[in-house]
Amino acid sequence: KNYSTLAYDILGHGKSSLKKQNISFDDFSDQLIKLIDELNFQKIHLVGFSIGSLIARNFATKFNNRLKSLVLLGSIYKRTEQQQKIVNQRFEQAKQELKLSKQALKRWFTDEYLENNPKIYEKISSILSANNMNNFLKVYELFVKHKNDEEFNKITASTMVMTGENDIGSTIEMSQELNKIIKNSQLKIIKNGKHLCGIECADDVNLTI
């Protein structure tokens, strides 16, 4: 209750348009710096999840002086050849079908959680199906082809690296590596969590933050 919390639509999502054809993570960082300048926020605690964590990493290398702290939840780092192949296949499938497979939810939540929370399943499915797929695919391609070429030495803000114990895309090993290379960082593995542990294991994630 002592903080203001701002959730915003990144480019190509919700009501934020995406006019450019060729985009980079710099475009997303520029969007965020303009937003916090407009709102006159001098320093922020930045929480990035999944592709948002890649945006947050980019932002932190460019605007570290605007951060009080950084949280990277469900972040990727140096996929193996096999992991990259699987992500490439999912991207090609999304391009052909012009939708994100509902199988994604099986990767993001435990089976038990989906069985016990059918309304959450339906809500997230409807959000996915409402995406502007042309914009979504531009952003998804950035996620798929990410090169892990950030200048991590520029990140000096206090950082929390966190992932779900059973997240097959943003693995424990990836978070451990990020924890090693981001100098002022801590590591937290969310027990029993998958990719959307921020929902399924909300108490654990929120209390850690």
- Using the alpha-carbon principal axes, give the shape: globular
What Rg do the Cα atoms give?
17 Å
Uncertain regions spanning at least 5 consecutive residues: none
Number of helices: 10
Mean pLDDT: 95
The H-and-E topology, N to C, reads as HEHEHHHHHEHEHH
Oligomer designation = single chain
Count of DSSP strands:
4
- Percent strand equals 5-15%
**Structural class of the secondary elements?**
alpha/beta
Strand order of the largest sheet: 1-2-3-4
> Main sheet, how many strands, which sense, barrel?
4 strands, parallel
Structure overview:
- There is one protein chain.
- This protein has 209 residues and is α/β, with parallel strands linked by helices.
- The chain is built from ten helices and four strands.
- The protein has a four-stranded parallel sheet with strand order 1-2-3-4, sandwiched between helices.
- Helix 1 crosses helix 2 and helix 3 runs antiparallel to helix 7.
- The two termini are 14 Å apart.
